[in-house]
Write a structure and sequence with these properties.
alpha+beta, PH-domain like, 3 domains, 4-stranded antiparallel beta sheet, 7 helices, 14 strands, 27% strand, DUF4429, DUF4429 domain-containing protein, SHOCT
Length: 286
Amino acid sequence: MGDVLAGFHAVWEFESDSVLIRYERGIRTPKLFQALGERRIPLSALEEVTLTSGRRGTVALRLRPRPGADPLMEAAAGQLPEGSDPYRLVLPAERETLAEYYADELKALLTEAASGPADRYLVAAPEGPMHFKAYDGKASFDGTTVRFRWSWTGASSAKWKAGDRSYPVDGLSGVEWRSPEVFEGHLRLLPREAGGPAGPVQPDQDPAAVVFGLGYGPVHESLPFAAAVLAAVRNRGPAPAAVPTPARRDPADIAERIRHLGELHEAGLLTDEEFSAKKAELLAEL
């Protein structure tokens, strides 16, 4: 097609086999759009095109991806509000005829594409390395391993007892993301093999999860992070022969963590044996 359609917050460029979406930067543009920058959506990843009337004299052109085609939408699991839908282009009502033309053109092309759930991700995941600050720690992802480093001001005693965690993607089966815009969000890593404590564990007590909300781990940081991890899990290769040796830590950071462990010990939240064991682990990282 080779045409361009500009709307509020984004510009869509139509090509013979894909739609290139370029998101604008601006005060009113949703932060998620700004974080995504641009996305190329293959027509093979789409199952439907709709055009509906919007609010305040607008129309909305929307693409509906096939289930399992986009890691971002799979991670979101229907939790994004309408205004933050990256597949929705809002235009002034006077451009409805033009939008209808493009909708019809796309529908004609989609009849030749596959339909139903996709057996692999067809839309590229956000690129890494990635990181964000949650309420109880910092999460980072380098493309192969997710790392949680707990905050001494926000992490629960259960997470401090477990220590900072590293999770290679070859040991994961997926990611559970809950939007911080609903109530209290979290990102939980799901292991490939069943294990750990029986029954559900609250995210603030689970060393495989970070919690966020009230300014910590906003959607535009935590959701692309979750999507990148999901894509890596889906595309993972053979398990590594050994877990990489962690890098040496800052002595000042080790001292601060030992001090905090001492406070937990004095408060009765750590036994003598647990305190000694965790202190030895931290000292071994110097």
